[in-house]
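Open question from group meeting: does this chain pack into something compact, or does most of it stay loose? Before anyone orders reagents, we agreed to write out a predicted structure and look at it together. Recording both the input and the output here so the notebook holds the full record.
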Amino acid sequence: MAINNFRFDRRAANRSRNCSGFSYIGLLVIIAVLAVVAAGTVQTGAVVQRRDAEDEEIAVGLEFKTAVRSYFEATPSGMPSSAPRSLQDLLRDPRFPNPKRYLRKIYNDPLTGKPDWGLIHSPEGGILGVYSKAQGVPIRQDNFPDELFFFKNKKTYRGWVFVYGVVCTEAGCDLPNHEEQQEMQQQ
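Structure tokens returned:
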């Protein structure tokens, strides 16, 4: 009888080893599926984060546009209307003895994370608006606020110009004759 028990134990051990091979393969399949799901989640998260940055870009850009318009409209009587000479002029208007502010701070570009904006200059040298220096193709291609209808189908973020005092159509804005700005509008 001892011999029969020995054979039985050996068979059970062999069956156990065969099953552990299937368990190992099953575990590898589960890990692979989890890795694919995790990669998809990370990619989706990156797209959501970029969409949020684009929405923030629009909000901040409109703040700059409103500040430039307010600067123009606040021109002291007896002085010709002029554009701010720098973004710092929007923080404290040098034309007035008492502080007059149009922006609380120079905002970071949400797409680059830096306060380094591209500037759109008037022929006289003042600032008419800003644009992002971010590289890449915008995710958002339609459904912009009415005042930004000309952002539709832009190929780069440089085409998203937040400008006051120029005519804009679906083809783009009629910016002063600067080569970089004309090239930017083509994008």
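Observations to bring back to the group:
Helices lie at 2-73, 88-91, 179-186.
Residues 87 and 106 are 7 Å apart (CA to CA).
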